[in-house]
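Render this sequence as a predicted structure.
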Amino acid sequence: MINRLLSFTAILALSFCSNSAQGQPGKPPTAPAPVVVGQVVRQEIGEQQSFVGSVSALRQVTVGSAVEGRVGDVLVNRGDKVAGPRELPAVDAEPARKEPGQILAQLETRTLSLQIDTANTLLTLAKDAAAELAANLPREIELAESKLEEAKARVEFSEKDLERQNRLKAQEGVVSETEYEQALTQHQVNTQLAAQAASELARLKATSDLRLRQVESRIKAAEQEILRLEDLKSKYTLRAPFDGYVINKLTEVGAWVRSGDPIAEIVHLDNLEFEFAVPQQYLGEIQRSFEEGGASLKARIEIEGLSETIEGQVDTIVPQADLRSRTLPVRAKIANVERGGLPLLRPGMIGRASLSFGERREVILVKKDALVLGGATPIVYKLVKNGDKTTVAQVSVKAGSSVGSWIEVSGNLQLADQVVIQGNERLRPDQEVSILRTSDETPPVN
């Protein structure tokens, strides 16, 4: 124990001697403190008001099954990015076409595929029958015309034979009654056969168009059945309706789903909206900004936990006030950004929307990082040139409205001044500094 106390005393003594030596005249001074500086900026701003709100999606949908069946495969997981349908440009002589969205899940389609194969077989049979009819129908008509010509020739021959029998009958004993009756009967038979041949030819000609239309109808019916089955089969493949992210997977392989059962939930994150509640006393100012600007009012949105400010466009004032809080929902559209391949903003995030309206005034702005808090009033350190050295002077300021990462200040600051925005936590008045970098950042347009 005594040894430890002696060692500790020795360390304290050495430390005291070292500190005393540093403060003695003739010793080298301490090195300048490294800092990052920014400009003091003068800018016109309007009255600033901020309102609490949250991010919500413009498009969010639960993809459901349009048919009943067993899930054969699920191709996405929660958090996956999926691609929706998109138009493909025309290539050479081919017209532009639409590429379907990414597959989310696949239902079993074996039975439906067999039905499609059967329908294709029936279509082939119908086409073969149509080809056969188209080839044989002219020959049938040609054969019927030949039979009619033959029947007409027989009628003409039997008619002449009957006339000859009549002449011979007039001569006693030349032609028997039996021979005459045979000739008469043969003429009548030939006449009937000719009539039948003419009727058959007329029937073939009259029904040829009908028979062709019938086989064409059978072909069309088979094609429509195939289209119906193919359309039904496409419903067994569930696809993403738009670009987005899977936020919920609601089925698994082997599950039996009915028509309307949910499969996955998808949200579109490229374009979002920030909804915030505005007390009714500010509604007139917001409405006037719409009327005067001729366009939607800009909102600067700061999301809790994120360092950057998002700009939005106020485009909707919901025309229904909350009966308890007397506030109206206001919505601003915002474009999402990616960081590390992932969207920065997500639905449900909380933040603040700052609006600028009313009379505009010219103010002095500095970066919020320039403020040093903790004392009676906020202070900033501005650069002062002392010969070939650069030191800092402490300036007490009064903070006002904020503009993104900038803030209004009033105090002994001029437009040409530079203030320390990094490395100011441990500075002392008149301390020498070395400038690592001068920020060229400017405040957003208010």
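Summary. Confidence is low (pLDDT under 50) at residues 1-27. The first helix runs from residue 2 to 23.
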